[in-house]
Amino acid sequence: MSRYRPEDLRRFVARVLESAGALAEEAEVVADALVCADLRGVHSHGVVRAGIYLDRLRAGSIRPGAQLAVVRDSGAAVLCDAGSGFGIVAACRAMDLAVERARRYGVGAVGVRNSNHCGMLAYFVLRAIAQGAVGVALSNADAQVAPYGARARYLGTNPLSVGIPAGEEPAIVLDMATSEVAHGRVQAAAVRGERIPPTWALGPDGRPTTDPQEALRGALVPFGGAKGSGLALVVDVLAGLVTGGRSGPEIVPLYEELQRPQGVGHLMLALWPEAFCGLRALRERVDRLVREVRALPPAEGFDRVWLPGELEYRRQLEYAQAGIPLPEEAVAVLRQLAERAGLAAPEAVL
User: Fold this and answer.
1) Could you tell me which of 4, 140, 30 has the C-alpha nearest to residue 92?
2) Side-chain half-sphere of 215: how many Cα atoms within 13 Å?
3) pLDDT digit string, tens, across residues 176-206
4) Phi and psi (nearest 5°) for 247?
5) CA separation for the pair 62, 343 (Å, rounded)
6) Which of 56, 93, 96, 343 is the most buried (most CB within 10 A)?
7) In whole angstroms, what is the distance from residue 106 CA to residue 112 CA?
């Protein structure tokens, strides 16, 4: 894989989005979020997504300059409308508002409707952690997943993320789709012509498949059977129904009907540690927990015990210094974007 400087990727993606009408401020936020995903090794949500964001921006389903409008303000709980703007921008503003309310009330909950795809949820809980809060992020998505026992799509991959501050240790950052695998990983396998594990998806006939093209025509499966399916349903309710937004099949697929806004919903939550045990005490106890878990004897087949977000944290440190190793499909997207926007593509450093 070729490696790229994070700052070069940020600058390039922001310029591409600005060329299609995005405001500089929002283009920079979107670019930073995508590059953050690549820095953490989550390439399915990295710069490879810039292409579809550009398509939707040009088609009018992502509206530049859209504000996060407050629909209802109940103090600790706020309902907002994203106005069909960038999902990443709306989710950032919602998390910042949740943290502000958490400072005031101990907890903050901000629901968002009429949004679009918001990328890697870890980006938003890391934003809360940086402000001294515990962050929780939920988002629904277009129907790609068959509920447990079904063969047809109904649920989205419906991710969730939780970020907990630590002291000297890396923060605990859980970030997961409620499907067995993110939809982007199946797309990447299809582009590369690779097979996928039979546990990822069903073909159109309702049977497990190792062909990513069949999987794209069929449905992803929830992780953990009935448990993952139930969690996906709950995320859809909290991010979609509670916010008064769209749900399941009502959400416009990211790569289809590009003229229509997706109507994605988010729920951003923040807890202010000083309203509970205190930030200093929380950090100390989290450090101790991390060290105790890491010191546990590994099971057969494992070299050591990892905590949520720890591998991604290590990648981020390495890639920030040595450059981000982008997969071939992401490099191809950069070249296409450069041609479409009339810009020079970023140059690899290795």
Assistant:
1) 30
2) 30
3) 999 999 888 898 899 889 999 999 999 999 9
4) -145, 145
5) 22
6) 56
7) 20
